[in-house]
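Appendix B. One record, verbatim.
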Amino acid sequence: MTRPPTAAQRRVIDAADPVTGRLRGTRAQLTALVKRGLAFRHPRPPHDHFLTPAGHRIREAEEEEEAVAEASTAGNTSSGSGVFSARVGGEEEAYDGAGRVREVHSAWQGLLELRRMTNPDGATDRPCGWERANLVRAAALALEAAGHPPAGPDADGYRVRATPQPEAVAVYGPDGTALRACATTLERAGWQAGEYTEPRTRARYLLASPRRA
């Protein structure tokens, strides 16, 4: 396996021109990047160095990691951790108030920025890789950010649950009207949602998955 770039080489990669990939660094640094296949020397004067596709992938991977860390949507589900947690419905803790509204708004804006930075075409209307890896929390954030109330100990609302199907979550609502409103919200957020009935309980639910195109 190819060794990862050194810290100094990573700094050179990070400082590359965001559009052209043109590099600045010492001759030794640039030569080392060329040997690793992360840069190439242009054949025409002034023989500048540019990132190769492999070099671009390294920089994009680092940007994605930073964006995930900055976007508070990527927090864990422990409410006492001080990290933002999307409400999936059924929590015992109370999260109401203006502070929660601000947190949800900030988390949603962070997720949109994460989409812009990590989707290949910079699209913000389509879920990104983090959402596909965190389906329940991603769907719950889209619903809460749109103002849908999550189910709580003393309130009816949505519940988002994992399913055996790949890239799909189940969304339950207190009634058909609320369920259809959740479907509309998810579709606007870049998800596909269809309404189904459980065979045994006859409960209605949405099966939602992130849209790819």
